[in-house]
Amino acid sequence: MVFRLVLGCGTVCRQVIERLSGHDGDRLLVITADESVVETLRDESVPARSADPADPAAIANVEPPDVIFVGSDRTDVNRAALRGARDRFPDASIVAYLGGNATAADRDRFDELADGVVDPTTALADRVLDGTASPSAEAAIELRDQLASIDGRLAVIAHDNPDPDALASAVALVALAESVGVDADACYFGEISHQENRAMVNLLELNLRNMAPDDSIAEYSAFALVDHSRPGVNDQLPGDLHVDIVIDHHPPRGPVPGEFVDLRQGAGATSTILTEYLEQFDLEIDAATATALLYGIRVDTNDFTREVSPADFRAASVLWPHVDTSLLRRIEQPSLEGETLETIARAIKNRIQRDSVAVASVGRIGDRDALPQAADQLLAMEGVDTTLVFGFADEMAFLSARSRAADVDLGETLRDAFDPIGSAGGHADMAGAQLEVGILGSADDEAEIESIVSVVEEVITNRFLEAIETQPGVPVGAYTQTSEWLFTQRGESEDGESV
């Protein structure tokens, strides 16, 4: 919750207040000497107090605000109010309206005392609002306070098997934490797949900690989640873990815990949000972090063609001067491994097509990296606008889906189909899932394994196709009992004998 204090209420200020009063959950107090304005504001349910904003006594008993706007029409009143506000609230963010008769000395004094100065010759009310009510500016104040309150080491957790957006966001949040004196680690569970992702980490020499499920987290005093929003969902953390910070751009599938939560579904990438924070914190962005963040934005927006927003373009423009373009080219063009080509070939050969939807199992895989690339290749085939490619490694099934169909939301489709038996998520046109196939571990020979895999393949295929057909309906029911049994068995029957 942000507390905004307005000192003086002139013409420009009234326009700003009309916008500020619509921020639900935040607090606003206006202090002005014009009693008629006070009465009008109160009639509009805006908290207002009659007092001279230039008099230090007017704010002597006001609790410290987060943001102050000095907004009288008179320069002399604003100058005195600004001086008193800075003395009384040295840590507040102050934006001051210069007024209509400012001298050069006034401008110098305003520049000295205020964080932002609005000159009536060049600014309108919208510019004032940008200075006082920008969500990123307000959130930056809250995030800085949250980070500064951490006593100990912070773990910044990306989602399992992180993509460039998650990795870059984790590295950026570590930089923000360290800027306020908090030690932090960028952490992830699982593996970094995709040749491009590994190239990004290696070429940029990103400092990351790969955690195992049985690693102790006791050394950390606080936890932050980036590019996902719930502990225990798409990470290996306890589901009841106390989370301090959550920053994500995906729609949540349930309650989101956290002392500080920034969920911006309008942003194309979490890296966009972190870039705004780096800018708001006024931090110098090093080349490695800038390159990682730009690559994260480009991957999640498919080079600014998918779910892109103006904020993504702006973040890219902020990052570009700091990006190492030669390393970025090397990251984007890694060599294609032979195993990846073989997986793509199996996907094309094994595909099952129903209307414009193609599903393919590639069987046993050594590298999950190839699955999304195979899904992309199937999507390039004539008559296909939605694809699912899946394969098996150890006791897990890994799924990757792609779509260019306007009436398909793959993230919702995979969650509906596979959340009951695993974890799934993603975007409308790009999503993935992981399913634990415990029964594979009990198989004794290759023939038995192939038989089990055949059944699992049928379950996955049918759940996906039925979820596509019933969108935006409910999870598939026809195969629920069979699939839940397959994906939860550990190789023992009720009496303990081997299955």
Automatic annotation (TrEMBL):
GO terms for biological process: potassium ion transport. Residues 356-461 form the DHHA1 domain. InterPro entries: DDH_dom, DHH_sf, DHHA1_dom, NAD(P)-bd_dom_sf, Oligoribo/pAp-PDE_c-di-AMP_PDE, RCK_N. Residues 5-96 form the RCK N-terminal domain. One of its GO terms (molecular function) is nucleic acid binding. Residues 155-297 form the DDH domain. Gene3D superfamilies: inorganic pyrophosphatase (n-terminal core), NAD(P)-binding Rossmann-like Domain. PANTHER family: BIFUNCTIONAL OLIGORIBONUCLEASE AND PAP PHOSPHATASE NRNA. This is Phosphoesterase RecJ domain protein. It comes from Natrinema altunense (strain JCM 12890 / CGMCC 1.3731 / AJ2).
